[in-house]
Design a protein that fits this description.
The protein has 578 residues and is α+β, with helices and mostly antiparallel strands. The chain has 3 domains: 91 residues, Nucleic acid-binding proteins (OB fold (Dihydrolipoamide Acetyltransferase, E2P)); 267 residues, 2-Layer Sandwich (BirA Bifunctional Protein, domain 2); 121 residues, 2-Layer Sandwich (Gyrase A, domain 2), CATH 3.30.1360.30. It is built from 14 helices and 22 strands. It has an 8-stranded mixed sheet with strand order 6-9-10-22-21-20-17-11, sandwiched between helices. A 5-stranded mixed beta barrel has the order 1-2-3-5-4. Helix 3 runs antiparallel to helix 5, helix 3 packs across helix 13 and helix 6 crosses helix 10. The radius of gyration is 29 Å and the shape is globular.
């Protein structure tokens, strides 16, 4: 190959130079006396031109060619292309490979269905829309290495074949050929291993780690994903957050040219929930949650029976826009969060109307209007519940819905903050005294809350922190338990018997008997970071070969059945009736 330049790098300064270029034909326009070819490679597009079309081989879209010629300035620049001030006058074309007509247009804008694009993902990647996102992803990884190498971190790989352990999500299991009936588990995260590295004296560990969780999929979740994983000894929480804020500042500057203001804000978990209705709040817009209990809690209304919380949001200027049909749709949204329903009030000619208006007397109306600062045509949506989390999450979902509907989120803006002081435990609904870990069972309770483990576990807060960007949890971490007795006590509070702890985690917590240092860490979701920084809300746009929402790869048709002979080796039988 004799390539001299990448297509997207040519500029006016290159005028007069002889060049050899390689790539794919993105477009071809034969005007009879003039032939124009847009040649695409991984860096961009350059226009080729000749006034002797018959002297060159006939090429079609997606043919792979080599083009020779000289660069000249365009008479009429194309402002839509970085290379738009120049073109290459052809002297020869060599065809490396022909191409059939593609099943969809290879361009940023396409009307192809996602499953069609995933079936031909190698063609989809040629689209600058996808390729540029993969470039951003690679830049984030490069910055990850540069930043933590400069802070004396050691990159260590952890095992992909692990022992099964309950960390929250369902695991992918791998049968052992040698040990019949036994299974490895693919890692949900490198959590246990990185803590063992701290006990092993590594002190500063990081890696780009592949993780696997057998969960129901959605726009921002895949069964296999990548964590930028980190663990450090002898640092407190403030030091770890400051260290990682430096990394965030670097990637925002390098990828989108934005200087983020440090230090980042910190919002306690319950404040985030009570004000924004989310543990990953987007604070780029208002519509904050209001405590309606002091305003309507004393009104006789059957729907308030047994309710401990009444929360609402004020939506300016939406009273007339909110029809019965709109309210019915809001009821469906509320029921997803186990709320009984959504009530409404709206200001009409200075008075309160809406589904709850008939229950409000003049005195209550005056109090509500004044307390919420209501104006004509404002809408108030509210609900009641005995469960604090349910009502917060439910009203938070309506907050997000209306923010999108009203266009309250400014494009190309970034909102970064830490959510801290998470509860250590999440009570299991309907099972008093039973808990699950809010993050994971290796999270360290706050020192001042340790006595509450024996009396009020539900009030224990943890040294836990999530980085939230534009309403997405882009990463999270905790300070870790580093003494044997506390770790054992946490397992017992989570309902594990001594035998279960010994069987599932004995190998891990035994290491704590030999001098574990104070340590903590964090894991950033590389896929979500890339998603945020490239302006998409679909995680499949930032992975080279993702699965669809059914966890299927439409291109390779994985997962697939395997030969009986392979199953026989593993002593596995398939129940054909299921």
């Amino acid at each position: 190959m004799e390539r001299t330049d990448y297509n997207g790098n040519l500029r006016l300064k290159d005028a007069g130079r002889e060049v050899v270029l390689d790539g794919w034909v993105a477009n071809r326009r034969n005007l009879g006396s003039l032939l124009f070819i847009d040649l695409r490679d991984s860096t961009g597009i350059i226009q080729l031109v000749t006034d002797h079309p018959d002297d060159f081989p006939d090429v079609r879209n997606e043919y792979v060619i080599e083009a020779r010629g000289h660069v000249r300035a365009k008479e009429v620049p194309n402002k839509n292309l970085p290379t738009g001030e120049v073109e290459v006058v052809l002297t020869s074309i060599k065809v490396f490979n022909k191409a059939e007509t593609t099943p969809f247009i290879i361009a940023d804008k396409t009307d192809a269905l996602e499953d069609t694009r995933l079936t031909y993902r190698y063609l989809d990647i040629r689209r600058p829309y996808i390729l540029n996102k993969l470039k951003t992803r690679a830049l984030i990884v490069r910055d990850w290495h540069e930043y933590f190498d400069s802070h004396d971190f050691l990159e260590v790989e952890t095992p992909a074949l692990n022992r099964s352990s309950p960390e929250g999500a369902k695991e992918y299991l791998v049968p052992s050929r040698v040990h019949h009936g036994c299974f490895y588990a693919l890692p949900q995260s490198p959590q246990l291993w990185k803590q063992l590295l701290m006990i092993g004296g590594v002190e500063r560990y990081y890696q780009v780690a592949r993780c696997f969780r057998d969960e129901d999929l959605r726009a921002d979740r895949q069964p296999e994903f990548t964590q930028l994983d980190e663990e450090v000894s002898f640092m407190d929480m403030d030091q770890i957050l400051a260290l990682n804020e430096g990394f965030l500042a670097k990637i925002f500057k390098d990828t989108v040219g934005v200087d983020i203001q440090l230090p980042l804000r910190r919002i306690p978990f319950w404040e985030a929930m009570d004000v924004y209705g989310s543990d990953k709040p987007d604070t780029r817009y208002g519509l904050t949650l209001k405590d309606m209990m002091p305003l309507v809690g004393d009104i006789e209304f059957k729907g308030f029976e047994g309710a401990s919380y009444i929360k609402g949001i004020v939506i300016p200027g939406q009273g007339k826009e909110t029809s019965r049909k709109v309210l019915d749709n809001l009821q469906l949204e509320a029921r997803k969060f186990n709320l009984k329903g959504v009530l409404s009030l709206k200001v009409e000619e200075g008075k309160l109307a809406g589904s709850f208006g008939k229950f409000v007397d003049e005195a209550h109306a005056a109090k509500i209007i004044e307390a919420l600062g209501l104006q004509e045509d404002d809408l108030v949506l509210f609900a009641s519940s005995s469960d604090r989390r349910n009502i917060d999450f439910g009203m938070g979902a309506l907050r997000t819905l209306y923010a999108k509907k009203l266009g309250l989120i400014k494009p190309n803006t970034y909102d970064l903050l830490w959510v801290v002081d998470f509860p250590m435990f999440d009570p299991v609904e309907g099972e008093p005294g039973k808990y699950v870990a809010e993050h994971h069972p290796f999270t360290r309770p706050r020192d001042e809350d340790l006595p509450l483990l024996d009396t009020k576990p539900e009030e224990v807060l943890a040294y836990a922190y999530d980085i939230v960007i534009n309403g997405y949890e882009a990463g999270g971490g905790t300070m870790r338990i580093y003494d044997h007795d506390t770790q054992w006590k946490i397992f017992k509070l989570l309902g594990l018997s001594d035998e279960q702890v010994a069987a599932k985690f004995g190998w891990f917590i035994d290491a704590f008997k030999y001098g574990a240092p104070p340590h903590g860490g964090i894991a950033f979701g590389l896929d979500r970071l890339t998603m945020i920084l490239t302006g998409t809300d679909n995680i499949r746009d930032v992975e080279a070969f993702p699965k669809n929402l059914q966890a299927v790869d439409p291109m390779s048709h994985a997962p697939a059945f395997v030969d009986d002979s392979q199953l026989d080796i593993l002593d596995i039988k398939i129940d054909e009736e299921k």
